[in-house]
Amino acid sequence: MDKKKAATVLGIAGGTFLLTLVLFQAGFFNRFEYLIYDQAAKWIRIPKAPSDQIAVILIDEASLAAVNSKAGRWPWPRAAFSDFLEFVMEGKPRAVLFDILWPETRYPRDANGKLSPDDNALVDATAKSGRVFHAMQLIRDVEDEKNKTLLNRPLPEDFIRRFAMKDISGTMPGAGENNNYYLPIPELHQAAHNVAVVEFAPDEDGVYRRTRPVREYRGAYFPVLGAAPFLEGKRAAINENSLVTENQTIPLDANGSYLINVYGKFKPYSMSGIFASLSKMKSGDFEEMMIDPSEFKDKIVFVGASAVGVEDMKPTAMAALSPGVYLHASLASNFILNDFLTPPRPGITVMMLLLLSLVGAAGTFYARFFSLRLAIPSAAAAVLAGAYYYSFSHNQLIDFVPPFAAIVFSSGGSFAYLLLTEGREKARVRRMFSQYVSPEVLAMMTDSSTDLARLGAGTKEDISVLFSDIRSFTTFSDKTPPEQVVAMLNTHFNYMTDAIFRTRGTIDKFIGDAIMAYWGAPVKLPDHALRAVTAAIEMTKLLTTVNAELARKGIILDLKIGIGINSGEAIMGNIGSEKKLNFTVIGDTVNLASRLEALNKNYGAPIIISEFTYRKLEGKLLCRILDRVKVRGKAEPVLIYEVMVYDGEAGLADAQQQAALTDRAFAFYEKGDYISALKLYNETHNVTLKELFVSRCKEKLGPQEGSR
After folding, report:
1. 302 neighbors 325 (Cβ within 8 angstroms)
2. Is 518 within 8 Å of 464 (Cβ atoms)?
3. Residues of 98-130 as b/e, b for ≥16 C-beta within 10 angstroms?
4. At CA 403, angle to CA 30 and CA 418, rounded to 5?
5. How many CB atoms lie within 10 A of CB 588?
6. Which of 143, 439, 452, 664 has a CA 20 to 30 Å removed from the CA of 204?
7. For 345-466, where are the alpha helices, taking DSSP H only?
8. Is the CB of residue 349 less than 8 Å from the CB of residue 401?
């Protein structure tokens, strides 16, 4: 592994982790996290209905319109709620909980301090029902000229004795912050079955999502309205991340708040329907009743408001404005269904920040292709989104925005780093190779995330090397004007270069009239031998075109070339002095290719390849054995082959016949059956090859046998 690259990855990942951790702990991501939560809540929770043991009765616009004409504008007379309780209690509900605060009398008390008949009607109905929960508020107030005497007042002793939680241990975060309260009028809370807190506090973006299930005032704890029926009379313990009762555990965040698992399918009753049904019931017209009291049997009934004039509409995760009582009803349904939503745990978030910082940086640095560099962070983000959705669906929240930011910051930082550093490397490589390789290969080298830094430093590569030389060039150049020599070479090199580039070869150098090229590096090509030989075949066929173009330029020449190809390992790098470097390949593989090119004229073969190249062709091109030659640096002689060049089906048949013939002849020659070899070599069309082996065979046979 490249230690420098690994150190860079760790540096970027570590920097990203620290940055996102600081921003996370500072609450920078909170508002973005709220947006993600709200959208997920709409997808996941809107289809869900609360427990069928919950009923919600709303004072809606229709209720105001129906009642205002008879009883006056809101707030209604207390006697109206007395009638309401009379109707609902006919159905024998488990409890009725008012999300309505009555801290003052509607009418002044009489001279003896007694309540007005209207106020007293609600008190009597509350006492008679025996199952009514009324509302209180515990708040933190700010002292001014009017409320100096209101802050930090003790609660009435009888109120604490009746309604404070009796058996609770631990300390709720924020204990001691409330310094003021609003209670129902004394007669009303004395008549109530219980009194619970109805105050909610919005998150920093103004949306209501959570509540503290129990509230503290001067050491006394009181449940909120939605939790009150389930906490009264039970032992409870406040732990670091939960409120534990005798049979349930309510998960809390670090501030002691519970993130309410809201529902989207409430089917509320309208208070106007209640009053209309009550009127029918009193007149004995039971058949025409819109609502039957029995619908509330054994249910927990919440009473709240959705009418704009009542001012209890709140922005929630589900809607821009939603009745506040839905929050209490959702909390109660969470208790009934044990449908508690566990908030994100900071420890898990920190681990995700670390992991995704590494994934973003490593994925960007180690991906081989640009598309993968984009795909890996995108895939990580998609997995994160899937995990968020899955966990939310199973009532376990994870943080989404901080880990997502870690992916963005680490991959973005890595891209920026690579843009600065790799961009310079790519420019260096373009300058180095623009003269050697085709634009296509150059693009592959710079865009496929090859380790550009190593190019030029020196590596060992598996390649195929080609040498090409013009036959009788010295004679031609001696008899031809210099400008025609240059024109001829440029025309020849243009066509030969195209053939090499089309097969993704690299031109190492032009050496006078010779070309040195190789395949398999710097871009890896598993079939480099096939590409090199294919280029050689095309080069020989292009000679007809080259000669025709030279003729048009007034240069009459039957240009011929010889090519030698070898495959194997070679050292690649920038070689030279400090003042002059040449990117090249060196080694025995290169030397043998050069040697093979020099043997062309000895065998009359335009293209000669080594046995190492031949084996890599795997029979994909037609070749024939030429000879076994001794090479410097090799302990054993090397088999060499001629690549057969032909045109059309007729040319193929002849080439196959000639290849089979000479292969058999060479086999006889190596076995020492020189008579059979001599006979076959006499039949070959390659005059140079025929003369070479006929001479050898006769020499082996001696004067008497050789003259047969």
Report:
1. yes
2. yes
3. bbbebeebbeeeeeeeebbebbbbbbbbbeebe
4. 125
5. 15
6. 143
7. 346-366, 370-393, 401-433, 439-447
8. no
DSSP lists the bridge partners of residue 561 as 470
Residue 689 structure tokens: 């090859």
Alpha-carbon distance of 692 to 682, in angstroms, equals 11
Report in angstroms the alpha-carbon separations of 332 from 173, 237, 338, 341: 22, 19, 10, 13
Alpha helices in 646-686 (DSSP H): 648-671, 674-681
Work out the burial of residue 254: count CB atoms within 10 Å of its CB; fewer than 13 is exposed, 13-18 middle, 19 or more buried.
exposed
Question: What pLDDT is recorded for position 453?
Answer: 47
Helices (H) and strands (E) in the chain, counts: 23, 25
Report d(CA 533, CA 254) in Å as an integer.
72
Q: What is the rounded CA–CA span in Å between residue 6 and residue 366? A: 9
Q: What distance in Å separates the CA atoms of residue 471 and residue 195, rounded to the nearest whole number?
A: 110
Farthest CA pair distance, the chain = 158
Taking the C-alpha atoms of 356, 361, 364 and 365 in order, what is their torsion angle to the nearest 10 degrees? -140
Q: How far apart are CA 487 and CA 549, in angstroms?
A: 11
Cα 393 versus chain centre, distance: 20
Question: Pick from 535, 530, 471: which is nearest to 498 by CA?
Answer: 535
**What is the 3-state secondary structure of 211-279?**
ECCEEEECCEEEEECCCHHHHCCCCEEECCCEEECCCCEEECCCCCCEECCCCCCCCCEEHHHHHHHHH
Cβ-Cβ contacts under 8 Å for 81 (sequence gap 6 or more):
98, 122, 125
What does the alpha-carbon distance between residue 239 and residue 363 come to, in Å, rounded to a whole number?
A: 41
Give the C-alpha separation, 139 to 150, whole Å: 12
Distance CA 222, CA 166 (A): 10
Measured between alpha carbons, how far is 392 from 386 in angstroms, rounded to an integer? 10
Pairing status of strand 132-139 against strand 180-182? antiparallel
The predicted-structure confidence for 641-699, as pLDDT tens digits, reads as follows 999 999 888 899 999 999 999 999 999 999 999 999 999 999 999 999 999 999 999 99
Contacts for 495 with CB less than 8 Å, ≥ 6 apart: 539, 542, 545, 546
The two tokens of residue 166 are 């009796």
Is residue 227 within 8 A of residue 335, CB to CB? The reply is yes
Peptide bond into 75 cis (omega under 30): yes
Q: Nearest Cα to 432, choosing from 528, 531, 522, 495?
A: 522
H or E element, residue 66: helix 61-71
Distance from C-alpha of 82 to C-alpha of 132, rounded to nearest angstrom: 12
Report the distance separating Cα 664 and Cα 676, nearest Å: 9
Beta-carbon contacts of residue 419 (< 8 Å; ≥ 6 apart) = none
CB atoms within 10 A of CB 149: 8
**Alpha carbon separation from 675 to 519, 634, 666, 682, 708 (Å, rounded):** 42, 30, 12, 11, 9
The two three-digit tokens of residue 520, written as one number: 């398999």
How many CA atoms does the CB half-sphere of 481 hold within 13 Å? 6
- Residue 703 has what pLDDT? 72
421-439 residue pLDDT tens: 766 656 555 555 555 555 5
pLDDT for 704:
59
Structural element, H or E, at residue 562: strand 561-576
Using 70 as the pLDDT threshold, list the residues of the chain that sit under it: 1, 71, 146-148, 422-457, 578-581, 633, 704-708
Answer yes or no: are the C-beta atoms of 331 and 258 closer than 8 Å.
Answer: yes
The SS3 of residue 126 is: helix
